[in-house]
Amino acid sequence: MRPLVLVHGFMGGSAQWDLQRETLGKGRELIAVDHPGFGTNNHQQAPDTIGGYARSVLDHVTSLGVDQFDLLGHSMGGMIVQEMTALAPERVSRLVLYGTACTGNLPGRFETFEQSRQRVKADGVSPTARRISATWFADYERAEQFENCAAIAEQSTLQAMLAALDAMESWSRADNLADIDCPTLVVWGELDRTYRWPQVDMLWREISDCSLAVLPGCAHAAHLEKPGLFNSIVDDYLN
């Protein structure tokens, strides 16, 4: 099987995929990255463009000697993998766009990007990381995986959080979805408070070879809320 590259989103990290490793890693190599400024790479300066993150991931995969791969991106990571597919279309075999959109214009987001910027400056990284990551779960802080997810989010630096917010807000590939010609799966939790249905629907309708999976009872962190269901859908698609 081809390697699968896992690309986390805003305030994420490679450890966020721990519940996927057994199923999705069976018979294939998993390459889970940490973006500069996040997770285990929080000592690095974060880019302030989606293209900068995309080139960083491509450089890392290339350094491992991997040419062709399947690609899964969550949230901001879904933006990053769309950019990777544009930069190196010949290297991406199958694409999974999970809880994401084709533009940083996100009407209906639980708060605006500017509110997120102002609150992290006023409240600090740790309180903001916990507050925002709670919105990713249908049951907020009561969710079983909330504390693990929040601990990863708290590893983010202030510079990385502000840079990522700028990167997302200024990015769009809304006019280029037809350029994605590899088989694509869109995965979305029906209770997602960050990416609303119209943005997901646009991906599904505009990408030519695209399938859709809507996970009931899940919010933005469906891979942590219902890992068995998420893993089986993604594994079946990639196989």
Task: Provide a concise account of the structure shown.
The chain is of the alpha/beta class and 239 residues long. The protein has helices spanning 21-24, 50-63, 76-87, 113-123, 125-134, 146-153, 158-169, 197-206, 222-225, 227-238, and strands spanning 4-7, 30-32, 69-74, 92-98, 184-189, 210-215. Helix 1 (21-24) links the parallel strand 1 (4-7) and strand 2 (30-32).
Jot down its keywords.
239 residues; alpha/beta; six-stranded parallel sheet; 10 helices; 41% helix
Structure commentary:
With 239 residues, the chain is an alpha/beta fold. Helix content is 41%, strand content 13%. The protein has a six-stranded parallel beta sheet, sandwiched between helices. β5, α8 and β6 form a beta-alpha-beta unit. The longest helix has 14 residues.
Average pLDDT level:
98
- Total beta strand runs: 6
Number of helices: 10
With strands numbered from the N-terminus, the spatial order across the biggest sheet is 2-1-3-4-5-6
Oligomer: single chain
Give the overall silhouette: globular
Low-confidence stretches: none
> Structural class given helices, strands, pairing?
alpha/beta
Q: Could you tell me how far the N terminus lies from the C terminus, measured between alpha carbons in angstroms?
A: 8 Å
Major sheet attributes: 6 strands, parallel
